Amino acid sequence: MLMVALAATAGLAWPAVAEETEESGSGEERLEQVESQIGILAEEMSRFLISAAVPEEKDLVSVHGLGPAASKVYLRDAGLSIGGYGELRLRTYVSQENDGQGGARSPDNVFDALRAVLYVGYKFNDRMLVNSEFEFEHAGTGGGGSVSTEFLTLDYFITNSLGLRAGLVLMPMGLVNEMHEPTFFFGAERPEVERQIIPSTWRENGAGVFGDIGDRIHFRVYAVNGFKASGFSVAGLRGGRQKGSRAIANQWAVVARLDADPIDSLTLGGSVYVGPSGQHETVVRKVATVDTSFRVPDVLTTLYEVHARYRKCGLTLSGLFTQAFIDDAASLNSALGNAPMASVAKQMLGGYAEIAYDLLPLFSSETAMSFEPFFRYERLDTQHVMPQGALRNTKYTRDIYTVGASFKPIPRVVVKLDYRNIRPESDADDVADQVQVGVGYVF
Q1: The pLDDT of residue 31
Q2: Who has the most CB within 10 Å: 70, 263, 306, 386?
């Protein structure tokens, strides 16, 4: 009975096979036929069980703004979904003169297992699912790495095009923060503008709505715990992330994003974040050798960005502009005890433009491989407008030029090579040029 049931599940007509073997052939031939059928049945059942437990999609596609591997659970009817990605990077330096130390020493070349990531999702039914990303950075905690939850959300679909989301959410800002898998951005390093001003990967605890209006408009709106302003610095907003770890939620913020696809090859969009960032926090620092407490002011932090991406016939054009405003930055610098040349700015801004072209279709229209040379220009200024009492530190006003190429032997594996030239306004030769080699995968 068990074999009949398994055969029925796999779509095999077991009883008909048994009757045929009884009517013709010798006993040895019948035995060989039975063994052959059992082997076929076992293979079919193995494929069926693996597919039912962890199905493998032929094409990875982005859903609700998430990276394609992170979107797999949305394409399931029900059950478990597993995906992931990983990156390794070798960074070397071209010269000793441009090392930020006046040529006194050569920077170390670094070969880093940047991250290994696992996506785990489970779809309970047509309305409810859980999705998550777990990241192991820099090969483990023993070498200064970390293990983090990058996002962990529970989604409930009111309709097919409108959902509720709660948990540790990826902030829906920029081109990289939600879609940060290595096969979907150019260069071995993410753009600096989307690391220092939009502090990717940026996630906070919160809840909100997401969905689509028709086929061409997509939105996400969340209420989240705000930044912690005590972490802001001369370099940008990155230190203000709370990342879901015992996040102080005395003050909340709102983040919203809208994207439109006016034509199949073009995406236009923008996002905005608004909220106070003091969190009613008190910092303690020494004043004349005495430990003194200072209340962090409730600085209103506003961050917006606009972006565009065009993809057609092997050509990719991307652009992004962002600006941050920190209200009463002078009081924040006073509370933190920042020196005039190490002060948090009142306004920060940055942007980049990028072009890439896939050359291989010129030689073979049927190839699944790609080879895409690219060029990216970035302008990053975290000292754009300074508050009273602070001085502009032009070391943090930089032009960054990156040229390189990405080669994909198959769509889910990428090898990257690039050259980066970083030119601070204070001294264009102060930072060593970099050559980077990266390898990434997604599944």
Answers
A1: 78
A2: 70
CB 376 within 8 A of CB 353: yes
Region 167-188: mean pLDDT is 97
Helix axes 27-53 and 2-10, enclosed angle (nearest 10) = 60
- Band of pLDDT at residue 420, cut at 50, 70 and 90: very high
Measured CA angle at 331 (ends 325, 336), to 5 deg? 100
CA dihedral angle for residue 276, residue 173, residue 373, residue 430, rounded to 10 degrees = 0
- 258 shares its domain with 403: yes
Do 119 and 256 lie in a common domain?
yes
- Same domain membership, residue 147 and residue 125: yes
- pTM for the whole structure: 0.86
pLDDT per position as a tens digit, 96-137: 665 555 555 667 899 999 999 999 999 999 999 999 999 999
Q: How far apart are CA 281 and CA 337, in angstroms?
A: 15
Nearest Cα residue to 345 out of 426, 234, 227, 197: 234
Number of domains in the chain: 2
Query: Domain residues for 47?
Result: 1-53
Q: How far apart are CA 287 and CA 130, in angstroms?
A: 49
- In total, the chain counts a number of residues equal to 443
- For residue 443, being part of any structural domain is answered with no
Give the model confidence (pLDDT) of 289-319 as tens digits: 889 999 999 999 999 999 999 999 999 999 9
| Cα–Cα dist 226/262, whole Å | 33
CA distance 421 to 375: 12
Residues 6+ apart with CB under 8 A from 357: 314, 315, 316, 372, 373, 374
CATH number at 163 reads: 2.40.160.10
Going by C-alpha positions, the residue among 375, 360, 245, 263 that lies closest to residue 309 is 263
